[in-house]
């Protein structure tokens, strides 16, 4: 059986502004997504039958449920194909913490869309990949391209951005699970908030990192920090450890710091035991998904 090995990267949000509540239950946001070099591994293989089966490393005997985002991605893709297609085995090795604001599940789903299309011999140009991705989750379309993108709408409207980001990222996650819908509710946005020029702030920040602290914010932080003060403490500790800038990613709970060098980030990571940490470079070019 032919196999395909995929690497699905994590993302962080360099700024996240929640602009307004929409009538469809979502919120319009403005954010800059950046793919970072921390990956889930996925192996796809076609099956003799028509089943779609996802197994997660560490639990090879246990099939993931039908609600698993990788399974849903494969099913959604097969449903738009013009002819019958065989089943798919999806073997997933998780390295990106789940429900942590790093987009791991969304990235896995995008990787399955792209990889399964290739394995099944479908022409990507003939497929509504962006619509399928947006139907799976607001962050999924970003991972079809990766790189750096300014996102609007509910996160699915993407504009690629060229930015030189001269930092190594240190990610710290204390294992707190924050449901995204709760985090949006905690903001309690009733009126409208204007979007700032995030890309301009980030451009300035590459030469004047001190400017980022006042110009680049994550609107989720206040509500999430009131419920989980540890996260605010971790942010302060990232600055104490030498970060030029620190922020929460997505709706949390991962906090990240931007460090001048890989060595500085690795050294700082030691201060965050026993929590999960990872150091990672940015993946600035689009198409960071490795097929
Ligand atoms: O799109 P996704 O499935 O990731 O969204 C999960 C939930 O998060 C939505 O049902 C909604 O409650 C909230 N959400 C939101 N605005 C967004 C993205 C998500 O309110 N832009």
Give the SSE layout.
Layout (H helix, E strand, L loop, with lengths): L2 E19 L5 E20 L5 E5 L2 E5 L5 H12 L7 E6 L10 H16 L9 H8 L3 H6 L2 E5 L4 E4 L7 E6 L6 H8 L10 H10 L4 H4 L5 H7 L1 H12 L4 E4 L6 E5 L2 H8 L6 E5 L11
Helix pairs in contact: 1-2, 1-3, 2-3, 8-9
The structure holds cytidine-5'-monophosphate.
What can you see in these coordinates?
- By secondary structure, the chain is α+β, with helices and mostly antiparallel strands.
- Helix content is 31%, strand content 29%.
- The chain contains ten helices and eleven strands.
- The strands form two sheets. Strands 1, 2, 3, 4, 5, 6 and 7 form a seven-stranded mixed β-sheet that branches. A four-stranded antiparallel β-sheet has the order 9-10-8-11, with helices on one face.
- The two termini are 17 Å apart.
- 44% of the residues are buried.
- The structure holds cytidine-5'-monophosphate (C5P).
- The site of cytidine-5'-monophosphate has 11 residues, from strand 2 and helix 5.
State the share of residues found in helices, binned by percent: 25-40%
How much of the residues is beta strand, in percent?
A: 25-35%
Poorly predicted parts: none
Indicate the structural class. Answer: alpha+beta
Elements, N to C (H/E):
EEEEHEHHHEEEHHHHHEEHE
Task: Name the hetero compounds present.
Answer: cytidine-5'-monophosphate
How many β-strands, per DSSP?
11
- Calculate the mean pLDDT score and round it: 95
CA-CA gap between termini: 17 Å
Our count of helices gives 10
| Biggest β-sheet strands, sense, barrel | 7 strands, mixed
Return Rg in Å: 19 Å
- Shape label: globular
């Amino acid at each position: 059986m032919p196999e395909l090995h995929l690497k699905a990267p994590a993302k962080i949000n360099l700024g996240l502004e929640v602009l307004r509540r929409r009538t469809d239950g979502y919120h319009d946001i403005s954010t800059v997504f950046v793919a970072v070099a921390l990956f889930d591994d996925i192996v796809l293989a076609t099956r003799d039958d028509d089943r779609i089966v996802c197994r997660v490393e560490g639990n090879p005997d246990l099939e993931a449920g039908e609600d698993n985002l990788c399974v849903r991605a494969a099913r959604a893709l097969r449903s738009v194909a013009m002819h019958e297609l065989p089943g798919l085995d999806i073997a997933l090795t998780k390295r990106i913490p789940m429900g942590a604001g790093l987009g791991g599940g969304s990235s896995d789903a995008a990787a399955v869309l792209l990889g399964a299309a290739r394995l099944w011999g479908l022409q990507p140009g003939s497929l509504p990949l962006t619509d399928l991705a947006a139907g799976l989750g607001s962050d999924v379309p970003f991972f079809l391209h990766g790189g750096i993108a300014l996102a609007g709408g509910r996160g699915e409207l993407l504009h690629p951005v060229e930015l030189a980001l001269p930092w190594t990222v240190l990610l710290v996650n204390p294992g707190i699970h924050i449901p995204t819908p709760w985090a949006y509710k905690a903001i309690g946005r009733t009126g409208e908030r204007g979007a700032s020029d995030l890309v301009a702030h980030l451009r300035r920040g590459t030469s004047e990192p001190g400017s980022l602290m006042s110009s680049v914010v994550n609107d989720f932080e206040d509500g999430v920090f009131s419920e989980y003060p540890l996260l605010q403490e971790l942010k302060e500790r990232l600055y104490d450890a030498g970060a030029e800038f620190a922020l929460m990613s997505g709706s949390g709970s991962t906090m990240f710091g931007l460090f001048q060098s890989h060595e500085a980030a690795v050294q700082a990571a030691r201060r965050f035991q026993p929590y999960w940490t990872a150091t990672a470079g940015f993946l600035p070019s689009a198409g960071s998904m490795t097929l």
